[in-house]
Specification:
Length: about 120
């Protein structure tokens, strides 16, 4: 299971790098999508570390809430950031609705979420 954890953390880092690159190039839609997936993979690593697998993006949110937020291992803003990123990604991906401000928020929060997840594993 720890191989999956390491793979997810690596994927999160790669997605964050891509999101920052997209942001710098002015590609806000892809910055949002990549920033969301950086958060998704980082949080998925936490769920894997506890021996669970999520069935959907919403299930991942609930698993992180139960396993890490409710247990005071992660602060609640992590879940708020992930929820915002999830909604923003859906809007960008399916509705073609996005903004530069939202892109900056998602990418910033992706970096913060990944930092906090890495700190748990250190």
């Amino acid at each position: 299971m720890m191989d999956l954890v390491a793979k997810e953390v690596q994927e999160a880092g790669e997605d964050l790098t891509a999101a920052r690159h997209s942001l710098a190039e002015g590609n806000m839609k892809w910055a949002i999508i990549q920033g969301y997936y950086a958060q998704f993979h980082a949080l998925r690593a936490l769920v894997f570390a506890r021996g669970y697998r999520e069935k959907s993006h919403v299930c991942l949110r609930h698993a992180v809430e139960a396993l890490y937020i409710d247990e005071n291992i992660l602060p609640s803003p992590v879940l708020e950031d992930f929820t915002f990123a999830m909604r923003t990604r859906e809007g960008a991906d399916y509705g073609c609705v996005y903004s530069e401000e939202d892109a900056h928020d998602v990418v910033r929060s992706a970096g913060a979420v990944l930092d906090q997840v890495r700190a748990i594993f250190e």
